UniProtKB/TrEMBL annotation, chain A:
Pfam families: RabGAP-TBC. Residues 240-450 form the Rab-GAP TBC domain. The lineage of its organism: Eukaryota, Metazoa, Chordata, Craniata, Vertebrata. This is Rab-GAP TBC domain-containing protein. PROSITE patterns: TBC_RABGAP. PANTHER family: TBC1 DOMAIN FAMILY MEMBER 19. SMART domains: TBC.
UniProtKB/TrEMBL annotation, chain B:
Keywords: ATP-binding, Cell projection, Cilium, Cytoplasm, Cytoskeleton, Ligase, Microtubule, Nucleotide-binding. This is Uncharacterized protein. Its main location: cytoplasm. InterPro entries: TTL/TTLL_fam. One of its GO terms (molecular function) is tubulin binding. It comes from the Eukaryota. Residues 342-382 are annotated as: Disordered. The keyword Disulfide bond does not apply. Pfam families: TTL (PF03133).
Length: 504, 382
């Protein structure tokens, strides 16, 4: 019985996940809101009523997406070797955390004394002014470590790559037989990005005057926001969101409405931060100090970043979501609380660019959390999803090898494997590498297509764009130098040309 | 062409020298015959003093107006703006309108727009002699954004003499930096003596422990614009930038009558503008010599480009300076400059306006935004 109920809750989680962002979801939500005002609906007995209704109407015969006998972990990730790779990666991170905890004598989690709590409450809006000595804490891992650790694990036992030594063999670092889309398939999937459709982020349209397109496009966008139609917003985002409407459109796509209960939830998380001190807080602090605080684009948001990331590390709803993906993050239990509260230890992800869109912490938080749960976690965990980091790496390498074989061969010869350069871009979805306006245009497409594949396409397109210079370099260091500054790139022309003007 | 341009400078900055060398100009000493002199404001005072009686010839050009201080010394600027306001009032110009309390609606002075300001004594620059006034107690309520100010909205002014009447050309530089305080505000008054709390000058901030060498506490204006447009909407953002342009144009109009219309001069002013919590811009001061010291890599790139674009306008093609040259540079030579105000065009536009309104033509949407000064009476300034 125990098993059945976990299975059921997993199934429900999956359905909810699939529903989110669909037109149906916004319809259901609207209907539900209206229903609430009807006198015959009673909140107290709602659960029972729905159950009875489903029974009598014959609903509830939904088939789970996999074989009924499949073990629950299959729901998370169907490929055993992927599960294994993710598990050993997590073990490594946890071990590193534990040893840091023992070494430094800092508990993974502890209750803050009252004085400290008060102090933190007072400086909540200016945590950046604090300068604790963090030299003892070392970052648990960098993108490079993730890549290094990941590659050897990713061998499919049923697939011997040494057998196929022919022209079709893969020259890249990733040697797993996953299906990733090639250019013809990408053209189908990303058809709105074609050369004849108007795009925000492209200034010279062949057919229409850019001002004309933009004016009309902004009007449509306003209408989408007015209608509060999540599916329409997602479709709209494929051609890019106007700067003034982006915040609303993204929130709509992500169904993150910032209702009073969201604000309350955020306040609860904030209280959690104030009450408990986690070892990870130091790592978050250090990470922000090392990255965002030194970044031309993001340093002004330093204080917001602490707020959001500290709350994120205490959000148990994030843990819920790990029930249906391959990752099972290490949890730390707060002493004296009997393990009621669990805290996830996940890689601090890309929140900084969102600070450009939302200046209200609770709103910023809820959009960020949705972005993470839908997309960015896939960049930090090993899975077979087409938007997972493994697939993106493979897709990047395949695109490069197929369409720029000379360049790939040259770089491989001088021991500058392209993935070693592109990995850090992809793992952060280009955050911190592109100028902010360009980054947001890229993320418009991630949301619009509900896929991270544009990240792999852009990585390949950057190599194509700098191919001439790259052909002349003779070392990894000089290849890295050629690709060091991406802040002047215009992403949409690059993606468009690579996808639709490459000869196939 | 009549030989290579001979240049002098008393400011040994690579952003200048690299630009001169790029044009293949020849360096000479100040005692020799020179064509182009990029000088400090101390030097211009000496060159144009009554004692020396120095007169510039047609092929000589300097980067300051002899009496730039009419705008860049704060007391004189205030005096000039007050006089301008009075003149407008006499004319019955709607810009000089007053509200029911007798306060000017558009041309208002405030000692401390939001609650605390930096005071800079007259005649001193780059953070020397700065002190803080007022209490910091209200600041806490503002979000972090209000604590920042736009700095260095660079522009070049190129006047020239035509038919005994001076015409003003103003070019606004599209790039610029917002400067931020690297130490955050605290409500406690003991912080008042913390010199780093409020300042926008690198000269002072560099000594703060929090000084960051990567970004130097500076944010580009394009990032500011992106942030504002994303969080507050396009209309509000456009209005703010229109108002900033309006301030620049009005400040220059205010000093126009007292400026020597020396055709050998141009000036690259740096406008310090602060934005309050209602997104209203306030003019703090104007600098005649924006710092050319580059504190970060981005800073260096921006300043190199600024000088480059400036030289492209004042000495087209790197040719010999000629004070009778054609004033309207082609679009492609403008770099990151945009025409903010063109007096000649403004006058023709006024003449054409009736004609145009009758024939029903509208101004191009992009073109009209550039010339903010052309429509002072319609400026939104609330």
């Amino acid at each position: 019985i125990m098993n059945e109920s976990t299975e059921l809750s997993l199934t429900i989680a999956q359905i909810v996940q699939r529903l989110k962002g669909s037109h149906l979801h916004s319809q259901i939500e609207r209907q539900a809101k209206e229903c609430l005002h009807q006198p015959e609906i009673k909140l107290g007995s709602l659960k029972e009523d729905v159950r009875n209704f489903l029974k009598t109407s014959g609903g509830g015969c939904w088939q789970p997406p996999c074989h009924p006998a499949a073990p629950p972990e299959h729901l998370k990730e169907p490929l055993a070797y992927m599960r294994k790779a993710q598990a050993s990666w997590e073990k490594r991170v946890l071990k590193s955390l534990n040893s840091m905890s023992t070494e430094l004598g800092v508990p993974l989690a502890r209750m803050r004394p009252a004085v400290e709590q008060k102090e933190l409450t007072n400086k909540w809006n200016e945590m950046g002014t604090d300068e604790p000595d963090l030299s003892r804490f070392r970052p648990v891992y960098a993108p490079k470590d993730f890549l290094e650790v990941t590659i050897p694990f990713l061998r499919n036992p049923n697939h011997d790559s040494s057998e196929e030594v022919n022209v079709r063999s893969h020259w890249g670092l990733i040697q797993v037989p996953l299906n990733v889309r090639d250019i013809p398939k990408l053209r189908q999937a990303f058809s709105e990005l074609n050369l004849n459709t108007g795009q925000l982020g492209i200034e010279d349209h062949a057919h229409i005057h850019p001002d004309l397109f933009e004016n009309e496009y902004v009007q449509i966008g306003k209408k989408v926001v007015e209608e509060q139609d999540s599916a329409a917003a997602q479709q709209y985002s494929r051609q890019g969101c106007p700067t003034g409407l982006r915040a609303d459109l993204w929130a709509l796509i992500l169904n993150s409405t910032n209702q009073p209960q969201d604000v309350m939830y955020y306040e609860q998380l904030k209280a959690g931060v104030i009450h408990h001190d986690l070892l990870v807080d130091n790592l978050i602090y250090k990470d922000v100090k090392l990255t965002a605080s030194n970044d031309d684009y993001y340093f002004v948001f330093e204080d917001y970043l602490y707020q959001v990331l500290l709350c994120f590390s205490r959000d148990t709803a994030v843990l819920e979501h790990f029930k249906y993906n391959s990752a099972t993050p290490p949890k730390s239990y707060i002493e004296g609380k009997m393990g009621v509260e669990e805290c996830a230890v996940v890689y601090p992800p890309n929140v900084a660019p969102l600070c450009y869109l939302y200046n209200e912490p609770s709103k910023l938080y809820s959009v960020f959390r949705e972005m993470y749960i839908r997309y960015f976690f896939r960049l930090h965990s090993i899975s077979s999803s087409p938007s997972g980091i493994v697939s993106l790496c493979l897709q990047f390498e395949r695109l490069l090898q197929t369409h720029l074989p000379q360049l790939f061969y040259h770089l491989r010869q001088i021991e500058a494997q392209p993935l070693r350069i592109a990995f850090k871009w992809m793992v952060r979805a280009f955050s911190g590498y592109l100028s902010t306006d360009q980054l947001l245009l890229l993320w418009d497409r991630i949301l619009g297509y509900d896929s991270l594949e544009t990240v792999a396409v852009l990585a390949a397109a950057v190599f194509a764009f700098r191919a001439e210079n790259l052909m002349e370099v003779t070392s990894l260091a000089s290849a890295e130098a050629v690709l060091a500054d991406l802040s002047t790139l215009k992403v949409m022309p690059l993606i468009q040309i690579f996808l639709f003007a490459t000869a196939i | 062409m009549a030989g290579k341009v001979k240049w002098v400078t008393d400011i040994e900055k690579s952003v200048l020298i690299n630009n001169f060398e790029k044009r293949d100009w020849v360096q000479v000493s100040e005692n020799e015959d020179w064509n182009f002199y990029w000088m400090s404001i101390q030097t211009i005072r000496n060159v144009f003093s009554v004692d020396t009686g120095y007169r510039l010839s047609d092929d000589q050009m300097v980067n300051h107006f002899p009496n730039h201080y009419e705008l860049t010394r704060k007391d004189l600027m205030i005096k000039n703006i007050k006089r301008y306001r009075k003149d407008l009032e006499k004319e019955g110009n709607p810009l000089a309108e007053k509200d029911e309390n007798g306060k000017y609606i558009y041309l208002e002075f405030r000692k401390n727009p939001s609650s605390t300001w930096i005071m800079k004594p007259c005649g001193k620059a780059q953070g020397k002699g700065i002190f803080l006034i007022n209490k910091l107690s209200q600041i806490k309520k503002c979000n972090c954004f209000i604590q920042q100010n736009i700095n260095n909205a660079h522009l070049v002014i190129i006047p020239c003499l035509l038919e005994e009447r001076s015409l003003i050309y103003v070019f606004m530089y599209k790039l610029g930096f917002c400067r931020f305080c690297t130490v955050k505000y605290t409500p406690s008054t003991s912080e008042l003596d913390n010199m780093f709390v409020h300042l926008t000058n690198v000269a002072i901030q560099k000594h703060g422990d929090d000084y960051n060498h990567v970004h130097g506490g500076k944010w580009t204006v394009s990032n500011l614009r992106l942030y504002l447009e994303s969080t507050r909407g396009k209309e509000v953002t456009n209005r703010l930038f229109d108002q900033i342009h309006w301030i620049v144009v009005q400040s220059l109009k205010a000093v126009a009558p007292v400026m020597n219309n020396d055709k050998h001069c141009f000036e690259c002013y740096g406008y310090d503008i602060i934005i309050d919590d209602k997104l209203k811009p306030w003019l703090i001061e104007v600098n005649a010599s924006p710092s050319l010291t580059s504190s970060t890599a981005n800073d260096r790139i921006l300043k190199y480009n600024l000088i480059n674009d400036t030289l492209n306008i004042v000495t087209p093609n790197g040719d010999m300076p000629d004070c009778r040259w054609n004033r309207s540079p082609p679009r492609e030579a403008m770099g990151n400059y945009q025409v903010l105000y063109d007096e000649e065009q403004a006058q023709t536009e006024n003449a054409d306006r009736d004609l145009r309104s009758r024939s029903g033509q509208s101004l191009g949407s992009k073109g009209s935004r550039g010339s903010a000064g052309g429509r002072p009476t319609t400026a939104t300034w609330k």
